[in-house]
Each structure stands twice: as C-alpha cells, then as structure tokens.
Amino acid sequence: MTLRLSTVILPIDPWHKGGRERWQRAEELGFHAAYTYDHLSWRTFRDGPWYGALPTLTAAATATEHLRLGTLVTSPNFRHPVPLAKELISLDDISGGRITLGIGAGGSGFDATVLGQEAWTPRERADRFGEFLSLLDRLLTEDSVSHIGTHYSAEEARNLPGCVQRPRLPFAVAATGPRGLKLAARHGRAWVTTGDPKLFEEGTPEQSAEAIRGQVDRLGKACAELGRDVAELDKILLTGFTPDRGRPLESVDAFVDFAGRHRDVGITEIVVHWPIPGSDFAADEAVFEKIVTEAPAQLR
Q: How far is the C-alpha of 293 from the C-alpha of 121, rounded, in Å?
C-alpha cells in the first residue's frame, strides 16, 4: 500500500510575507497535497493573524502547478451550501481541478457562536451535517437545484458550468460516529480522522493506533451496508491530536515508525502540520523537510 504524505498550512502568514513561499515550498518538497483549516479563527491563534481559507487556497492555486489543495476541514458552523458551492466551483476551475473539500460536522469552538447563535448540540450538528452534505453534493453535480430542508434551502440555485473534476470535486469526510461514517461511505472519496480524542491526554500511541483501526473497521461496515468497497476511500490521518503529539517530527526514524504503525491499521494518507514556532505545532523545519524528502522511500 502506498502511503501518501501531505501537509496542512495554517492561514496565519500574510501572502506577500511568507505565505506564497510556503505553499510553493510544499510543492517543491513533493507533498501529495497541502490543506488549510477553514475556521474564522482557531484556539490559541484567535488573537493573532488568521486569513480566510478559500481566498488562501485560490492564491495557492495560482502559485502552484501540481500540488493538490483543500480544506481540512470546512463545516456548517458558518457556511451555507449555496454560496459555498459557487465558491468551490470557481476554485476548482482556477486550480485546474486540484481541489479536495475536507468537510466535517463542526464543533463547539469560536466558529460555533461567532454569528451570534447558540452553539448547536451534538445531535443538531449531526442533523445539519447530513442535510448540508447532501445538498452540497447536489449543488456541485446538478445545473439547477431547488430544495426545502429543515436547516438549508435552495431556490433554483444555478451552478453552471459545474466542477472541472467530474462528477464533482472529491469530498474528504471527517467523521468517527455512526451517522458521520455513513455519510463518509455515501458521499466521500476519502475519510478523515484525528484519532480518538479520549486518548489524547492519557492514552498510549499503541492504544491510539488500535482505536483508529476500529474506526477504519466501522467505516468498512458502513460502506458494506451501501454496497460500496471501503478500498475506494482514502483514509486520511490529520496528525497532532494523538498521544504521539509532536514526536513523529523529531526525526526521520520517529516519523517512519509512526507512519508505518498507522499504515498497518489502514491509513493511506498522513497529514503533518507545517511547523509553527512557539505553538503546539513547533518543530525543527530542517528536520521536517528531511522527513518529507527521505521518509517516503522507507515507507514504500
């Protein structure tokens, strides 16, 4: 099994002061894809610079040629499927068909209340996510869509000419619960996990890998219920949220051990954060680049 290596670049740098160069460097290093978070702000970065995901990806599309680009992940917290579909069709065109939409149900952080609403309950997030994803799927594949839903509606929404990628750009669905895994099985070209959050503080790397194996198994069952082969879906691990934390980026050997362990439980793409000094994602950038250029050969 070929294991892909990708990165996530947080949108914290001005485009003309390091932003452009970082995305171009990601392409030069040979990453499969470079993603960015789709938040309005996020955790400890809330009081610092934070730029919009889709404009950043648009700029990255014009600054690169081959690198796949995407969100990791978009959510319904502050978006509506109709304008999002129009922006995604435009972005897919500008990039020449290199966009992947990472998408999840959203959480309870800053994005959940920034528009002035009460944070949704887990059940409401799941309800909205299912409706959001189903409508977005239609908007990206049909020329005109009308829909009256519980949470989202569209009235003759026109989406010509559609995506460059057919029948639409791929969805990478972030999910671990039963309802979300069914959505991943139905709509996803890929599935995204960050591991089991209950193990982050006190779990072991081995327990975490086994928990991810269980998630992959449940994804397989969800696919089987729909008559779909789970092998059709890429399985993406966004790193930094398992008990391993930043240790995989300490050396090439440490990363190869980490990546091999997760390849063995079914992961097909590993996403590492581009180093950010003074943050939870701090790492030696020289070691980071050595990992990117040397580790893949050891994982074939």
A: 43
Residues 6+ apart with CB under 8 A from 171: 100, 101, 102, 103, 133, 137, 187, 188, 189, 190
Contact between 174 and 219 under an 8 Å Cβ cutoff? The reply is: no
pLDDT tens digits in sequence order for the chain, 300 residues long: 689 999 999 999 999 999 999 999 999 999 999 999 999 999 999 999 999 999 999 999 999 999 999 999 999 999 999 999 999 999 999 999 999 999 999 988 889 999 999 999 999 999 999 999 999 999 999 999 999 999 999 999 999 999 999 999 999 999 999 999 999 999 999 999 999 999 999 999 999 999 999 999 999 999 999 999 999 999 999 999 999 999 999 999 999 999 999 999 999 999 999 999 999 999 999 999 999 999 999 998
Q: Which helix or strand (DSSP H or E) is residue 156 part of? A: strand 153-158
DSSP states along 75-118? -TTS--HHHHHHHHHHHHHHHTS-EEEEE----SSGGGTTTSPP
N-to-C CA span, the chain: 7
| Alpha-helical regions (H) of the chain | 20-29, 53-63, 81-95, 122-141, 178-187, 205-225, 252-263, 285-298
Tell me the two tokens of residue 26.
């990601």
**For the whole model, what pTM was predicted?**
0.97
